[in-house]
Amino acid sequence: MTPIITAFERPPDGGRGLARDMRVRWALEEVGQPYDVRLVSFTEMKEPAHLALHPFGQIPTYEEGDLGLFETGAIVFHIAERHAGLLPDDANARARAITWMFAALSTVEPPILELGTARLLEGDKPWSEQRMPLVEDRVRDRLGQLSARLGDADWLDGGFSAGDLMMASVLLRLRLSGILDEYPNLSAYVARGEARPAYKRAFDAQLAVFEASTAGRR
Amino acid sequence: MTPIITAFERPPDGGRGLARDMRVRWALEEVGQPYDVRLVSFTEMKEPAHLALHPFGQIPTYEEGDLGLFETGAIVFHIAERHAGLLPDDANARARAITWMFAALSTVEPPILELGTARLLEGDKPWSEQRMPLVEDRVRDRLGQLSARLGDADWLDGGFSAGDLMMASVLLRLRLSGILDEYPNLSAYVARGEARPAYKRAFDAQLAVFEASTAGRR
Question: Are residues A163 and A67 in the same domain?
Fold first, then answer.
């Protein structure tokens, strides 16, 4: 059964692969699972039909027969559990890969989201200029720790896993800020993720949505 | 083999059960798995021995033979996967319970953490008073959506699961702010969690650590 995911009808990131459907697309491409995409507008995301699927009114969602899931982490884990290629077979290595998925979402991403909020929602506030360095330094705290752990390894724990997929996706959000470049090994780590054929296929698919949405507006 | 978790030697929350070891203790109590606790000081948390176990220098960690894990979500999931009682047997229900774990940590907790940061780390800043309502409203956005989904159900999806354990733990952090009381069904939901015998055993165990640490300071 071909799963169906949802994505923004008009991607607000300009097709740069920062919307969370990218993470699910990447996971599906890594395991070779074809999928369908249903595009939703910002209005539709807040309507009852979508809220029944995603109580927080966001994308992506994942439908497979009578199973409906939301939360990128849960969807990527569901895909990783059912297909080979994203989680190691060894039980301990598998538990550690899952740990990195949670670390990406619960420990590394929150200060990065806060940086985004500070820019997008509070960039015009009187405190913005004075506060921004504090917010940036919270991101740097996490990145310094992550950089120290990664060292010169290719991936966080042995071979590429769903943990790396999630961590690289989270770090990608920082690229435009310039902060990622302060940590050359993390910057190279993200580039290794982007160089994967599955990443490229997922990226092209989400870019095509953006390009179609732009064409439609002309 | 008895697992070993780490917790704060001097709990900064005054033993109110808000430190993240509480979530792991609660999970272990729910499944009836005895555990040992190793207390760590704030200094030890930033030293190489602890950083080898937890790259971000936090608690809790989880050691079981040659497996070492960090990240509360990953530890609770590991416990839930290996013992009956925290995840449903039905595959779809299990995937939805895991979804609520991720939702608690990735969608509901970040604005709550931001509220904590605004109070603890920026409470003395010139912008604090003016900014606080914005931060509180971001928490309310999530709580309103969660409240609408929960409705008058006891738990988020059928019986109590690891998803409820995590969501109730996240919401508990809001109690002192008064915001939780604005959503009576969420407040009752958290109270149902706290009324579970396993929660109470875990709570008493972490409170005992705080009380011992206070006695030691006299």
Answer: no
Considering its fold, how many domains does chain A have in total? 2
CATH number at residue B116: 1.20.1050.10
Give the type of residue at B123.
G
H or E, element range at B7: strand B4-8
Domain that holds residue A74: 4-85+198-217
Phi, psi of A196 (to 5 degrees): -70, 135
CB contacts of B98 in chain A (<8 Å) are 74, 77-78
Q: Residues of B numbered 119-158 whose beta carbons fall under 8 angstroms of chain A's beta carbons: which are they?
A: 121-122, 125-127, 130-131, 134, 138, 142, 145-146, 148-149
What pLDDT, in 10s, does the model give residues B151-184? 999 999 999 999 999 999 999 999 889 999 999 9
Task: Find out whether B101 and B73 touch, Cβ atoms under 8 Å.
Answer: yes
pTM exceeding 0.95? yes
Could you tell me if B163 and B190 lie in one domain? Answer: yes
B57–chain A Cβ distance below 8 A for any pair: yes
Q: Are residues A160 and A134 in the same domain?
A: yes
Q: Which residues contact A56 (CB under 8 A, 6 or more apart)?
A: A70, B103, B107, B142, B145, B146
Is the ipTM here above 0.90?
A: yes
Identify whether the C-beta of residue A115 lies closer than 8 Å to the C-beta of residue A109: no
